[in-house]
Please model this.
Amino acid sequence: MTSRALLETLVRRTGFTETHCQKLVELGEHMIPLASEVALAFYDYLGKDSEMRELLWAIPGRVERLYGSFAQWYKEVFSGQYDGAYAQRRQRIGLVHARLGIGPSEMIPAMGIVQELSLEHLRMVLRPHEVFPAVEAFEKIISIEIALIEESYLAAMEEGLRQGSAASSKVALVRGAEALLERGAPS
Ligand code: HEM
Model:
């Protein structure tokens, strides 16, 4: 399935409408200026876990670079441009993490932290009656984000197994992600 077709399926399954899209763009006014602050809090959280800390600090300058990559990712959550190219970028980000052996048990709680940090801010800046529609739109795009990452993990695993990397699911995941990224997937 192409990235665009996958996105269309996810849009339908989450019930993501034009109204949700517009709401996210509106929220961007409050949230985009916060991107660097969320990035700092996010890596502060990841750094509290010894395994993740080791990975983040394994290469000099990596975390500093990640602040920028994450902030860009966060801004795109509120961009209103959810098309095939967006889905492709998200799947590629999934593959970059799969190649590093970062599993769902690290990615899903991390996404939970993004939600916690964002919802806390929404609650502070919005009026009470504005909170529910904002949370509804935000949760829908986050479901789409998670599904795109998960699908890229499945594609990597499938590719790894196809290539005969059956020693463990992690080996298959890492090798498959390497192969897909080298090939320039997803399309
Ligand atoms: C909500 C979850 C996450 C988001 C949105 C996110 C975002 C990103 C982005 C946008 C990149 C750059 C990808 C690229 O090069 O194209 C990246 C790379 C990376 N992320 Fe994450 N990340 C998440 C979770 C995690 C977790 C749980 C870890 C665990 C340590 C992690 C560690 C890394 C590392 C090591 C890189 C590669 C950095 C390099 O280029 O050397 N990320 N992440």
